[in-house]
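Record type: ASSEMBLY
Status: queued
Input:
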Amino acid sequence: MRYAETGYNLEIDLSRGNIERVETDPKLTELHLGGLGTNAKILWDRVPPESEPFSPDNLLIFSTGLLCGTPAVGCNRTIVSTFSPQTLLMGYSMMGGFWAPELKYAGYDKVIFRGKSPNLIYVWINNDKVEIRDASHLRGKGAVETAELIRQELKEPNTQVAAIGLAGENRVYMASIEQGRSSASRLGIGAVMGDKGIKAIAVRGTKDINIARPDEFMELCNDVLKYIQHRAENPIKNVEPIFEGLGSPQEMKIIDEKWHTTGFMWGNARSRKKDFWTKEVEGKWRETQESVRTRLISCYNCPMKCGAIISVPGISTYMMKCYSKLTYTMAAHSDLDFGFRIAQRATEYGVDGFSTPQVMAFALELYEAGILTDQDMPGMPSDTEGRFYWLLDRIVRREGIGDVLANGTHWAAKQIGKGAEAYAHNNIKKHEQLPLKLGMLNPVYFLMYCTGEKANITQIEGQFPQEPFPTREAREEFVKDWIQVPDEKFKQYFLDWEPRGEHANPYYPTVDMSVDIVDWQEKMHYIDDALGTCAGLSSFPLKPPYHIHNYPAFISSATGIDMDEAGLTQVYRRNRNLIRAVNVRRGLTRADEKPPEDHWKKRFPELEQKLLDAYYKFKGWNNEGIPTKETLHELGMDYISEDLEQRGIIKNG
Amino acid sequence: MAKVKKKVKVIKIDLDKCNGCRACEMACSAFHAKPKYSSNNPARSRIRLIRDPLRDVYLPVYAGEYTKAECSGRDKYVIDGKEYSECDFCRASCPSRDVFKEPDSGLPLKCDMCEDDPPQEKPLCVQWCLNDALTYEEREEEVEEEVKPEDVEIGLDSLIDKYGLQKVMDSIARMSKKE
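Status: finished
Output:
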């Protein structure tokens, strides 16, 4: 019997309309766990690096994490992996919600799509019965609307549906995959789903998920529940409200947006409004938020309430989470009411709430600069809010200038020319980043921005505070119950980190400390993404219930696989190197590993190079960021070095 | 019949506090797995969350008695502007819907308040509901003594309703020979 996992994948060839249930190799679970780890293995093995993202050879993998569907609290993530049309590298995006556990209960760990369907279809997975069904009647429908229509059509209210909207159908590079209150939004994976002709995947499952050592496992789950309660009663002190508790940022609950509205940038990641947050704004925004927020909601098997049902009078109800509450508002220099309204349309269209508003603000900057003209924007309204709706409608339909903008700021700027490239200023690896511009270089963040395979900081950071605490006393209090540190030395790093002086950014944390800290943060994200644990209970917030000390017991009691901290670290290193190898085989080089030029005002080129050198060395990579033969050998992945050698990426000898 | 003092176990359900996570379903099914916690499957749960997010319907319902016939209840309730069907509140394991039945055998399920030895402090669904949508109360009441049918009896009853007494008896006779 297989424990925690089902041991089966669904392989769907869309070109031939063939569906197979394929048993998986348990050895791969031991080596990579599941989720992102085994997704990367499949992409390495089966997609040649020459394959274009929009080619039948590209795979689109919907995976559960190893612990999804078990009682492990908050393990509900769907990890979607493919090659991104925007970055041309491995694109992986994840979503919470209810879809992954349902797939497990239906009897599958992953759904792997290959080929392309000639017509728009949706897939209906009902335990052992799997069908490819016509979706021509759903063409052009909103993502939320599609899920509702499918549930009605199937007469199965408990079906979980992941769907794309118009943006995905039209292969917009910012297209998301939407599912209830969750979405896999980054890196254009919704465009790949649309390219394959898949409108939606509906799942219903009523089978068991087994646990290897039940009593031990349940005790661990109970400990997590207790710790969540403990953290609710003991918010972190000396930090902004947003960092106090667990979960993904509590944007739906919190009204106080001083930190975002005065610290983050408005427009096309351009201007800060240091005095924006006044009593008057707070009062107005409170009224807006409380009047549209019907209920705070969660994902499967999680006591947090990171999402909300949003009902704005006059438009359809939808669900929201996290920072998309403010991305449209701030990109358009508008207010919260506008943000909630346009996000409804954006959710139905199925677009990424980070990239999309930036693309629109970018277009308006180009218009103001005379690079785009009235000829490019025929009939565009005169007010910014009206222009946002106008642009959004055109982008998702790829109409006129929308067809250019639909490829994101990097590619749009290249196509527009006339100096437009200077306006696509907030990208890493061609992908739009958080609208954040800061003063002094932070060495830890520098490394994460440069080297993160996900090209999205919120999926890399966590664990270690973003800023030093003002007093030694406050720092001492913080480290007292910091049980999550993998090693006591991290407490010292934090204790000695000062806001100013010798022990301050950019030279403290030192190069070696920075590498250590980044490695810890990355490790936790990689483990979460293999297990399907929500980062909100693990790698993202300070002092989470899951950490490197209790994870091995979770994994071994759930699956029966022997696991300790050293073994788990080895799995993490294997997955980290595997994804790096997938990307270097597609052409990723050191030259790509840089933050947006203007991310920090104060830059330190020499220090930055030292940081990258040290990071690569720590990882066992050469100076170009490519895993060495020795490193790959130690991790049991000689097949990768052989391939990279054959391609001349690793030089022999 | 004699009057006896009885501990009445009550689960209080506060719909406004429900965040829709379905941990109650998961925990229930894990507790009732054999051996305990060895598997979980919300489809086997004796509590079900009737959930319709876009209409803000979040309604946990517990499995009650098995019934062999559908009732005529098809009325609609509108509470606070939200529409519920009469069925939504019903605890019965009945032929008109697929909840509160074992997914493989179709046998009826019923909430037993997680009877356990040693007893649980409160039912598992309540333990796992950190949002206090489900809370547990006990009170003493004087009630008439009654003999309650056991799980096996309820299960057999439903099989007899479906296949007739003779067929069930024949099957049991045949199966006992095999053993």
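Annotation: DSSP finds five helices and seven strands in chain B.
Annotation: Chain B has two domains: 3-146, 148-179.
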